[in-house]
Write a structure and sequence with these properties.
heterodimer; A: D-Maltodextrin-Binding Protein, domain 2; Dipeptide-binding Protein, domain 1; Dipeptide-binding Protein, domain 3; seven-stranded mixed sheet; 21 strands; globular; B: about 325 residues; mainly alpha; MetI-like fold; two-stranded antiparallel ribbon; 14 helices
């Protein structure tokens, strides 16, 4: 079976599974995709600062750039790697080098051929220094063996799943060497009209309104993309997005496009569907962090007691309208590879929490056990409410709480630069692979003052560092997964920082939009296989 | 007249300087910096990379030097470079300026027409049911949050009736030539301009009514009536013209603010204006962009003030005598 047909086969089965779930088994599973049409899309956030932000830049530029710029491989919803620009990635026996075979006949949007030189440039000049950072620390060299083969050499063994995750992840976008070579990649003006190998070409970006893409007629897979045109538009107001759906002026919105209470109303008529697939490789959680620089929170019993004082089911049901669930351990339950239930859990039990605090040496004295500064990062609306809820919950066990919900810039500074908090509420989105996106919140080398979304608690445990270090070089997959679970068990017990709830982001799509949730990271899907049944 | 224009223009330089210094200081006093926001969004942790970016953004220099450099570049009519948008500040502003101007001018036009008509009507029929209804409407539109009004209008006119688009400024990807394009923009403009205009109209109606009633009591109005002039002529030519001065003052103040746009209306109607740009820039502490908008805004305030002064002269020749 050629690679094309395997890919197409996977696509159709994924689409069929989706279709049958939506419309019942009577729906024909062998439906042929239709060509043509314009897709009007949006997401539950703001316009990006630039269509492509080379170091990352958050979800919005990731959403707009991945329609244009592709990666070597991609991770499907059932967590299998599929070829995109690379047709094969093969480790050597010792896992210290990898041979990457590239796809033939791929051209950039400006007509230049895509070759091994491009990939070498990306590895050395873009991924290692700018986007992937510590993930490629072990990289020694990259060289083009022939125009379609690249050899990567590493200083230490690199697990296959890890490397492929990096290549399929947010940092693995492949940019053209002939455009970026010799320039500052981060400030190159081309980032506002990016050029890639992807299924769509940027036609026009009207700042403040929308970006329009046209079908790439020379896409390496001649039958794709199915769409003629793709328009991503931004509404800042979720209620306006609901109205746009209802007025037929919007086809699909990813990452919670509409207010939660609107979801049942929109989907009840059958005209729209709510899809929760496709977020596992970018799983959002709301975390609580205990600053280890404070003597009170150096005591594990105190951290555990506070975890037990929080009714996380209440947060899920009331604050997130049921679009979240209490977390178990440090790894989101959507992570089918590393998630385990076999960890220390913290069910809601304020009486036990109070007893634990008594035992830890913090009895109630003149109405209060101790006071704490709670900083809830104000970048999500829900964090305002979570902050207020936590204040009440902690006050119920006689802790005096001083709550602050600062804006984005201030929250970043207080939590990650100044460490100016006792307890913080923050968020992050981790990939399936735990290193580094999850582990860097706990390991000692994750402490980088001024660098956001890292270990800001100051927690340092040699035993934990050792597990992660072993995991980084363990190439045997089952052993590696076992190490991941050891990691989870240890941090769940220690609780320097733990997720309170796993968010369940939802995609809203018109029911005639097909094949839209096929990869594990939906914000970054190219939508080449998406089609409209009109 | 020339003296007025010159005097106003001479105020621009200290005004712009004050705007720059004040806002530069304010934005640096706010916790967090553009550098923090950018590096956290980009997930950069490598210390060498952080240093390189600090240098690129120019934040490795003392604040005083940064300020002096900024003032020097503004003097050379260069508003600087926004690393967040990865484009020169002026280009980004100019991209969004037309949309803002169209929306704000249309809204002010709606406000003037509706507000003045309502005000005149209320004053002519003072203490009747008309007057009460107009006052009630004015209070309502002034008090109703404009995002609520906007969403309600969208629900009624776009979702239920389907008369107008839900948002945006143009139908995407349609090419109808210049006239078709203008009609298309006007079609998109109706709801946001009305939602915003009704809010301003409330003020105009109240001010117009009060000012009209005051002029009605003056002696020359009695004389005009005694001369046997028609009621319409008395109201329109004698009373209204004299009642216009406070409206012109209000208009001048409002013209000065149009560059800021309306964050709320822009976000409800996804209008590609400057309001949302300014909001994002403040939130990300992107001071070159904030200062760029404010510098252009202060120029506009100065020009609007000069225009208002000239309008006073035209409306009330007595001012010249003073």
């Amino acid at each position: 079976m050629s690679r094309f047909s395997r890919r197409d086969f996977l696509m159709t089965t994924a689409g069929a599974a989706l279709a049958s779930r939506l419309s019942g088994p009577a729906f024909a599973a062998t439906e042929a995709p239709k060509r043509g049409g314009t897709l009007l899309a949006t997401w539950g956030g703001f316009e990006p600062q630039s269509l492509f932000v080379p170091p990352g830049g958050g979800s919005s530029p990731y959403f707009t750039s991945t329609k244009v710029i592709e990666r070597l491989v991609r991770l499907t919803v059932d967590l299998k790697f599929e070829p995109v620009l690379a047709v094969d990635i093969k480790p050597a026996e010792d896992f210290r080098s990898y041979l990457i075979k590239l796809r033939e006949g791929v051209t950039w949007h400006d007509g230049q051929p895509f070759t091994a030189d491009d990939v070498v440039f990306n590895v050395l000049e873009y991924w290692k220094p700018i986007s992937a950072g510590v993930s490629l620390d072990a990289l020694d060299s990259a060289e083009a063996v022939d125009p379609l083969t690249v050899l990567l050499k590493f200083k230490a063994p690199v697990p296959e799943f890890f490397l492929k995750s990096v290549l399929a992840g947010k940092s693995g976008l492949v940019i053209p060497k002939h455009i970026y070579a010799g320039s500052n990649i981060i400030t190159n003006p081309i980032n506002n009209t990016p050029i890639g190998t992807g299924p769509f070409k940027v036609k026009e970006w009207v700042r403040g309104s929308h970006v329009e893409y046209l079908r790439n007629e020379k896409y390496w897979n001649p039958s794709l993309p199915y769409l003629d045109r793709l328009v991503i538009r931004w509404w800042q107001d979720p209620a306006s997005r609901s109205a746009a759906f209802e007025a037929n002026q919007l086809d699909i919105g990813v990452f919670n496009p509409v207010p939660m209470p609107d979801v049942p109303r929109l989907t009840s008529g059958g005209k729209f569907i709510a899809e929760t697939k496709g977020y596992s490789n970018s799983a959002w959680i709301t975390t609580i962090e205990f600053n280890q620089r404070r003597d009170i929170f150096k005591k594990r019993e105190v951290r555990q007691a506070l975890m037990q004082a929080i009714d996380r089911q209440f947060i899920s049901d009331t604050i997130f309208f049921g679009r979240a669930h209490p977390s178990i351990g440090a790894i989101p339950s959507s992570n089918a590879i590393f998630f385990t239930k076999d960890v220390q859990d913290y069910p809601f039990d304020p009486k036990k929490a109070a007893k634990m605090l008594d035992g830890a040496g913090y009895p109630v004295k003149s109405g209060s056990r101790f006071g704490l500064n709670l900083v809830s990062a104000g970048w999500f609306e829900e964090n305002v409410k979570i902050g207020q809820y936590l204040k009440q919950a902690f006050e119920d066990i006689d802790i005096t709480v001083d709550l602050a919900v600062p804006d984005r810039a201030t929250s970043l500074k207080r939590i990650y630069s100044d460490y100016d908090y006792d307890v913080a509420v923050s968020n992050n989105s981790g990939s399936i692979e735990l290193i580094p996106s999850t582990t860097q919140y706990y390991t000692t080398d994750g402490i980088v003052k001024g660098a956001a979304f890292r270990n800001a608690t100051g927690y340092s445990n040699p035993k934990l560092d050792e597990i992660v270090a072993k995991m980084a070089v363990e190439t045997d997959e089952p052993k590696r997964i076992a190490l991941g679970k050891d990691f989870d068990r240890l941090v769940a017990l220690e609780a320097p920082l733990l997720p309170m709830v796993d968010l369940e982001p939802v995609t809203i799509a018109r029911s005639d939009v097909r094949n839209h949730s096929t990869t594990a990271d939906f914000m970054g899907e190219s939508w080449a296989e998406l089609w409209l049944d009109r | 007249m020339r003296r007025i224009v010159l005097r106003r223009l001479a105020q621009i330089i200290p005004l712009v300087l004050a705007v720059i210094v004040l806002n530069f200081v304010l934005i640096h006093l706010a916790p967090g910096s553009l550098f923090d926001v950018m590096t956290s969004e980009q997930q950069i942790t490598d210390p060498a990379m952080l240093d390189q970016l600090r240098h690129t953004y120019g934040v490795d220099q003392p604040t005083g030097v940064q300020l002096a450099k900024y003032i020097w570049s503004v003097m050379r009519l260069d508003l600087g470079f926004s690393y967040r948008q990865n484009a020169p500040v002026l280009d980004v502003i100019m991209d969004q300026l037309p949309a803002t101007l169209i929306l704000m001018l249309a809204a002010i036009a709606v406000a003037l027409v509706i507000g003045m008509t309502a005000g005149v009507l209320a004053s002519v029929r003072v203490n009747t049911i008309w007057d009460n209804l107009i006052s009630l409407a004015a209070v309502f539109f002034f008090a109703a949050p404009s995002f609520w009004l906007g969403i309600m209008m969208v629900v009624l006119f776009s979702v239920k009736l389907g008369w107008f688009p839900v948002g945006g400024m143009r139908t995407i990807g349609v090419n109808n030539g210049v006239i078709g394009d203008a009609l298309d923009v006007m079609h998109h403009l109706v709801l946001p301009a009305t939602a915003l205009g009704l809010f301003y109209a409330a003020t105009y109606a109240r001010v117009m009514r009060a000012s009209m009633l005051e002029v009605f009591r003056l002696d020359f109005v009695r004389t005009a009536r005694a001369k046997g002039l028609s009621r319409a002529r008395v109201v329109l030519v004698h009373v209204m013209r004299n009642a216009l001065l406070p409206i012109v003052t209000l208009l001048g103040l409002q013209l000065g603010t149009i560059l800021g746009g309306s964050v709320v209306i822009e976000s409800v109607f996804s209008w590609p204006g400057i309001g949302s740009l300014l909001f994002d820039s403040v939130m990300s502490r992107n001071f070159p962009m904030v200062l760029g908008v404010l510098v252009l805004g202060s120029l506009l305030v100065a020009v609007a003030n000069a225009a208002v002064d000239l309008a006073y002269l035209r409306l009330d020749p007595r001012i010249r005598a003073r």
